[in-house]
Amino acid sequence: MTDSFSDLGAADPTTEPFWQACAEHRLTVQRCTACGNSQLYPRPFCLACESDALGWVEASGGGIIYSLTTVRLPVIDELKPPYYLALVDLDEGPRLLTNIVSDKASIGDRVGVEWRARDGLPPLPVFRTT
Amino acid sequence: MQPPAGRRRDGLPLMAHILSQSPVYIVGAAETPLGKVPDENEFSMVAKAAREALGEAGLKLRDVDALFTNYMGEEGSVQLGEYLGIRPRYAESSDMGGASFEFFVHHAMLAVASGRCEVALIGYASRQRSRKNRKRAAAALDGSLSAQFEVPFGIHFPIGHYALSAARYMHQYGATPEHLAEIAVAARTWAELNPKAWIRAPLSIDEVMASPLLCDPLRKLDCCLVTDGGGAIVVARKDRARDAAKTPVRILGAGESHVQWHVSQCPDLTVTPGVASGRDAFGMAGIKPADVDVFEPYDNFTHAVLLYLEDLGFCGKGEAGAFVAEGRLRPGGSLPSMTSGGGLSYCHPGALGILLLIEAVRQVRGEAGARQVPGAEIAVAHGTGGLAFSTASTVVLARD
Q: Is B80 helix (H, G, I), strand (E, B) or coil?
């Protein structure tokens, strides 16, 4: 395990496994072995059946764009507008807020995960149309 | 003890019988100075509005025994209570975003009806325009879930959240930019009639659609104003306001709910918690959407009003675009809405909800001047708050 991202304010003790997996370019979701429900962000138990039988499984990295906007205002220093901001429904079920890094994208498009490096912080899962 | 008059769909006893035995009223309502307020602070603004609202009911600050506020700093009701010299027996500073004040009317109504307090003051003011403290993004690297899962992707708070809702809604139901623009134009046609409105110049659909895109599909003129402002509302029984100079307005019903904070956790961005708040408020009031004479929706973004119209049952799901065409919400239309000019053209002091209630009171009293809806007897204030319809609260007001 690398250094704790929680110590940097980029994770917390419950999300540390998610971001540690991202550091290895693995996109993971919490999966309940009792009922099969997948969830993100992580909770201490399954929200569907309240079982403690949760583990982390690797997602396929595929998904579908649920919604999409082009941000044309400056928001954070790391991203120069315009850029795509999207909600992606992962094939495993959970929905992620993310960026689409393709030149053209639309709601309903299939996408696959890529990784955006961050200096000293875990890479971010972003998506490209496939 | 009489048994409950009936049971709601979800099994809770109806509150209507409590209110029929012990009706509760808004007995005073007043705006703070609006627009740009360089010569006051937030507390002095609320103090003056509180004195005016209490004065409408023939009451004084010393009569207040319940206090409700939001966005007035840490432990806001404590700070406001100190400033006004109020030591309440019932107090709340819940943060339900801009809809907090509809939530507060709901809670104050129940507290007054059940005898926990007699005179409830709801107050709020903001100088977000003068202070230029509207933030674009949540804090980075504070270990919060927003810092982990939202901020690094550059989501604008809150335009980005609402844009994701608008884009999905338009994709799913075929609403057009013209439909969104009609909301901005309807609000402006009302603002033209309101001397207190921030912007009163006539506006066309083409002008809205020619304004710059901020977060697609939302353009500058799809987004509400950033102004200073606020107000005060007094809730009490009618007999507590027997020296009232202004007509008390009866609270017929109220409801509330909330869904998500982080936009990824909302299962359907085309539906708001207004479905639940509207169901409860209309159910308690015993009214149908067709009974509503004036609608005061929280028009923070144009497409928001389309969603509320559907969620409160004024039209079917996905039908609001066609519903608002032909000026139905404008002066002279069949559902006069945003009659002050709304957050889009009158005032948006960070939290519009209190001003929706004040305008609804004025319409039901018949004192709205050039923008008065003739014969208005039932008005609905519908608040939303947070990030892409996090919260909702609906209040039904009526002439006694």
A: helix
Does the model's pTM come out above 0.90?
A: yes
Residue range of the domain that includes B63: 16-131+228-249
Q: Check residue B214 and give its pLDDT.
A: 98
pLDDT in tens, B334-343: 999 999 999 9
Q: Give the number of other CB atoms < 10 A from CB of residue B202.
A: 10
B245 and B216 assigned to the same domain = no
SS3 B384: strand
Domain termination residue (choose one: B196, B214, B249) = B249
Pick from B152, B215, B262: which is nearest to A71 by CB? B215
pLDDT for the residue numbered B19:
72
Q: Could you give the dihedral angle defined by the CA atoms of residues B211, B335, B296 and B320, in that order, rounded to the nearest 10 degrees?
A: -50
CATH number at residue B60: 3.40.47.10
Q: What mean pLDDT value characterizes chain B?
A: 94
Same domain, B354 and B258: yes
B298 flagged as catalytic: yes
Tell how far CA B332 is from the center of its chain: 23
Q: Measured between beta carbons, which residues in chain A are less than 8 angstroms from residue B149?
A: 41, 96-97
